[in-house]
Design a protein that fits this description.
By secondary structure, the chain is of the alpha+beta class. The protein contains four helices and five strands; from the N terminus they run ααββββααβ. α3 runs antiparallel to α4.
């Protein structure tokens, strides 16, 4: 996906969540290879992450993160990280969140291997 396509998907998601994207040009700037910064936007109910490798959000009052889109690079990198954090986590709330993310990433990885797509769009 191009950065512009990712931004458009992020705009649709932000609209559904009631989050306003004030500066789309800054989000595109953050996606450039040398910058590589994840943009985090939020309102009183949701937090939205926009990155060149994924789009995800969470309900600030529920222990799960929902992915909208992720590429193969993000899924494999994040899965290794999540598994490592699960092993050391003591908080039940954080552990539940990590397990939810782990399940989503494992499903996405399996589907991408079957399709040779390199991208996965989660149900939104």
């Amino acid at each position: 996906m191009t950065h512009t396509e990712i931004l458009e998907l992020a705009r649709e998601t932000a609209g559904r969540l009631g989050i306003r994207i004030k500066n789309p040009a800054l989000i595109l700037q953050n996606m450039k290879p040398k910058t590589g910064i994840t943009t985090i936007l939020y309102n009183e109910k949701y937090t939205l992450w926009i990155d060149k490798h994924y789009i995800a959000y969470d309900d600030n009052f529920k222990p799960e993160i929902k992915y909208i889109f992720a590429d193969e690079e993000h899924i494999s990198e994040e899965l290794r990280s999540v598994i490592g954090r699960i092993k050391s986590e003591k908080s039940p709330h954080a552990l539940k969140t990590l397990m939810s993310v782990k399940e989503q990433l494992q499903l996405a990885g399996a589907n991408m291997r079957q399709s040779d797509n390199g991208l996965y769009f989660f149900e939104n």
